[in-house]
Design a protein that fits this description.
2 strands; about 45% helix; TniQ domain-containing protein
Length: about 350
Amino acid sequence: MPNISFFPPSLPNETFNSRIARYQLIAGNRSVATTFKELFQHNNFSLAQIVPPHLDVLAAQLPGDPNATLNNFLAQNTLLPLFRPFLGTREPGDGQSICLNRLPRHVVGKHGDAYMCVQCMAEAEHQFGFGYWQRSHQAPGVTTCWKHGVLLLKSCPVCQLPFQRRLQLLEFPWKPCPQCKHKFDSATPPQTATKVAVAYARFVHDLLHAELQPIAPDLLAKIYRQRIQKIGFVWGQKNSGEKLVNTGKRLQSTSMTAFTEDLIEKLGHDFIAQVDPAFAAGRTTFWLRFSIVGGVMDMPLQRHILLIMRLFDSVIHFKQKIVSTCLDSWDHVPTRSWPLFKARNVLRTLFQSDLSPTIQ
C-alpha cells in the first residue's frame, strides 16, 4: 500500500525541487528533516542535482506503478531529457541506471543555485494561484529567461541571500526571505539580457522539450563533421560561405581550428566564457573534440549546445538531420528483408514530406 496518499501534481516545466518544496508547504511540516524522512526515508540531501537521488524511494510510496512514476519524475521534473541525447546509447538489456551513471552529479557553475524569472513567477501566480520554479531556468549556461528575455535571479533582490541554501528546501516566493523578510514582488524591475544569451536560453528550452533519445556518439560526430564541412570549413578550402559540391571523391578533413575561431567570433568570446567554465579558464586546447571515451563523446553539455546553435538554426532542423543521417546509414546496409525495406521507404516518405517522426 502507498504510504503517501497525496503529492503535488507537476506543473508545466516544474523542477523536482519545486514539487518537494510545495509538498512541505501543503503538508505543514515544521522541519525539512521531517519532509525528507516522509518522502525519501533519508536524512536531508541536496535536491540541486541534475537527477536527485532516492527518487525511486518516493515513487514506491505513491499510488500507481513505481516504474512509471519514476520515469515521469525523470521526464517531467529533471534535466535528464536535456542531457540524454549526448549520454551515448545503451546496449539491449541495460537499465535506466546506465544512462544515469553517465550524468555529472552537478553542473559546473550551477551547483547550489536556483534561478527564477520574476515575470514567469507572476504569470504562474495569475494562472495557478502560486508561483513555482522552472527547469529551463536551471540548465547549464542559462542566465536568461527564454520567454521574457530578462536576466534570472538567484538570490533575494534586497539582501542577496541565495534562494537555494545548503540542505534546505526552497521557500521563495511562497514565504518572505528568511534574512530580510522581503516578500515576492512581481514589480521588481527586470534587467534585459543580450540577444545571444536569450537565443541560447530558447535553444536550451526547445532541446529540453524535444524528447530526443540517446544518439550514438559516432553518429553525432558524423552529423557535426558533415555540417561543419557543408558550411565551408575543410582543409585547403577558404570559407566562402558557399555550399560544397559533392564530387563523389573522398571528403576532405574538417578544419576544426578555423571553425572554432568562427564559432567564437559568431557567439562572442565573453558569452562563451560565461557559458563554459573551461573556456573561461583558458583551457581551449582541443576545446572542440569529437573523441569518444567510455561510450560518450568527450564534451560537456554546454559545448554541444553551442555547437548545435552554430550549425543549425533550430532544434527542429537538428532533429531532422538526425533522421536523415540515420536513413542514409540504413541505405548502406544491404538487406533482403521486405518488411525492413518497406519500413525504410515509409520513414523516408515521412521525412521528405516534412512529417518526420519524433526520435523515440
